[in-house]
Amino acid sequence: MRFLIIFDRIAGVFLGLLVALMMVMTFVDVMLRELFFSPLIFAPELTMIGLAAMVYLGLPIVSARQEHITISLFENLFRGRAQRLKKAVISLLLAFLMTGLAYQLWIHAGKMGAEHLLYLGLKKVWIGYCMSVLAGFTAVVFVVRAWIDAKDLRPKFGGQTDLSSSAGS
């Protein structure tokens, strides 16, 4: 779990810098376009890479923190152990789905071959593989969350009563 905390902090700082840089780039692009009729020609490509990075770096963070947007249609039906079991089962289902996404991204990236970005010259295959690896890492995060929730199903001894007291270990 400590690795997730370290990843959370490093990726959080990186994502904050990424958002700031994208904001500055967009401002400069608009100003150049309006004042000199000469936009940054590589801005759309950097925006595409930045958005992919924000989504796939953010997924493990949001998943580890359990901060996904949820709908509480059935929240009142489950209490106590049943609630924790439901969370564990949902985490396993999401791990399965993320594994499928990672696999499909890997296959799609492999099919890109020598395609590259027009202005930056970066091969698209590397972007696809990075997205696939981060989706796979998110699946691992979901498995860890399921394990934590399932572990919490056992009776508590020694004063430990909630997930938050075991999450820091």
Structure description:
This protein is mainly alpha-helical and 169 residues long. It has one domain (2-69, 79-155). The protein has helices spanning 2-36, 43-65, 80-112, 124-151, 163-167. It is elongated.
Considering the chains and any ligands shown, give keywords for the structure.
73% helix, mainly alpha, 169 residues, single chain, 0% strand, disordered C terminus
Secondary-structure blueprint:
Blueprint: H1 2-36, H2 43-65, H3 80-112, H4 124-151, H5 163-167
Measure the end-to-end span: 6 Å
Biggest sheet, in brief? none
Question: Per DSSP, what share of the residues sits in E-state strands of 2 or more residues?
Answer: under 5%
Overall residue-averaged pLDDT value? 88
Count of DSSP-assigned helices? 5
- Measured on Cα atoms, how large is the radius of gyration? 20 Å
| Number of E-type strands | 0
Low-confidence stretches: 159-169
**Pattern of helices and strands:** HHHHH
Instruction: Summarize the amount of helix as a percent range.
Output: over 70%
Which structural class is indicated by helix and strand composition? mainly alpha
Describe what is shown at a glance:
This protein has 169 residues and is an all-alpha fold. The chain has helices spanning 2-36, 43-65, 80-112, 124-151, 163-167.
